[in-house]
Design brief:
This protein is of the alpha/beta class and 341 residues long. The chain has helices at residues 13-25, 43-46, 61-79, 84-87, 121-124, 143-156, 187-190, 248-261, 310-340; strands at 5-9, 30-35, 89-98, 114-118, 132-141, 160-163, 178-181, 197-207, 214-217, 223-226, 231-234, 238-239, 269-280, 285-293, 296-304. Strands 3, 4, 5, 8, 9, 10, 11, 12 and 13 form a nine-stranded mixed sheet that branches. Strands 6-2-1-7-15-14 form a six-stranded mixed sheet, covered by helices on one side. Helix 1 runs parallel beside helix 6, helix 1 crosses helix 9 and helix 3 (61-79) crosses helix 9. The two termini are 14 Å apart.
Length: 341
């Protein structure tokens, strides 16, 4: 068959990295990204982009660890290259702190990040309300630059990108052989996934260049993540809230909580408020499906539902989605060669 045509729907970090993996692993493919929103208007643009995994209850831990490790290795190589500042990727050291010692003192990802260790008594004096902590170095992506860097890479490999609202995957079957669904929270409507729900996140992006270390409360609600130009302060986790409007009361609450962990933030300038809807479900939906309608078949690969942990696993899940696309192509080529017989 001629070069298979693949459409990737969605242009957040999952869609762009999946398109790049497909283009890299299947050079004979023609890959197109379709999305109604590109950076700076995606959910990924709101994300802090720090590599600290969130656990998916419905996904085996060894799989999550593999996704995280592949992502960390990929971004570590970029952080160690001349591309690092353009791609917005840098190493950052800091602390995850707990009011009570967690059940799991060694999370599954502790040997993937760098220099993971329990905090000393002296370090813990910085956080008088907390009794236990973990110190480590990880990677941080500044999201808009990273998305733009991915777009540049895609263009260089010949991937086309179009602004287009896809209301039904079926509308693509006459133009494309395979469709990859990376629509995040959009999959709720696009494929009617009732297991997918939004977890609203409100964050502040502030100018506080003296803050160099990340601080994350182990409950996941309060966090301070320094980027190259701005510090992300968070946050909220509001299940089933679809509102994209910033809430002023929430802004004050986030700022006060972060200042209680890092009092110097009282001097932060130029506070911008952002809201994103994390596409959450029990497990990432990463699978092949063949849609059929009136004898016509459309192979689809789903890669969505990464919730709060998309940046931490994006490259690993993109590689797996690209492998599934390869399986679809092999199946199509098999059926087209049988048809010739």
């Amino acid at each position: 068959m001629a070069a298979p045509k693949v459409a990737v729907v969605g242009a957040g970090v999952i869609g762009l990295s999946t398109a790049l993996c497909i283009a890299e692993t299947c050079p004979s493919c023609s890959v197109t990204v379709l999305s109604d929103q590109f950076s700076p208007n995606t959910t990924s643009d709101v994300a802090a982009g720090i590599l600290i995994p969130h656990t998916y209850p419905g996904t085996p831990i060894h799989v999550q660890k593999q996704w995280f490790k592949e992502t960390f290795t990929y971004l570590f190589a970029i952080s160690n290259s001349a591309e690092a500042s353009e791609a917005g990727i840098h190493l950052v050291s800091g602390w995850q702190i707990f009011k009570n010692t967690p059940k799991e003192e060694l999370p599954f990802w502790s040997d993937v990040v760098l220099g993971f260790r329990p905090m000393s008594e002296a370090e813990l004096q910085k956080f008088p309300q907390h009794r236990f902590g973990q110190a480590f170095t990880t990677l941080k992506c500044d999201c808009p630059p990273y998305l733009l860097w991915l777009e540049k890479r895609l263009k260089a490999t010949g991937v086309q990108m179009y602004t287009r609202k896809v209301a039904d995957l079926w509308e693509l079957h006459s133009e494309y052989n395979i469709v990859v669904n990376c629509t995040g929270i959009g999959a709720h409507q696009l494929v009617g996934d009732e297991k997918l729900f939004p977890v609203r996140g409100q964050v502040l992006k502030v100018h506080a260049p003296w803050v160099k270390n990340f601080i994350r409360d182990g409950d996941g609600l309060t966090y301070i993540y320094p980027g190259i130009h701005r510090v992300t302060l968070g946050g909220t986790r509001e299940k089933e809230s679809w509102s994209l409007s910033p809430d002023p009361g929430t802004t004050k609450g986030i700022f006060d909580r972060c200042c209680s962990l890092e009092p110097s933030l009282r001097g932060a300038q130029d506070i911008k408020v952002k809201v994103g809807l994390r596409p959450s479900r029990q497990c990432v939906r990463l699978q092949r499906e063949v849609l059929s309608q009136g004898g016509v078949k459309l192979p689809v690969v789903h890669n969505y539902g990464h919730g709060a942990g998309g940046f931490s696993v994006h490259r690993g899940t993109a590689k797996e989605a690209a492998r599934l696309v390869g399986e679809c192509i092999a199946a199509l080529q098999g059926s087209s060669s049988r048809a010739k017989l």
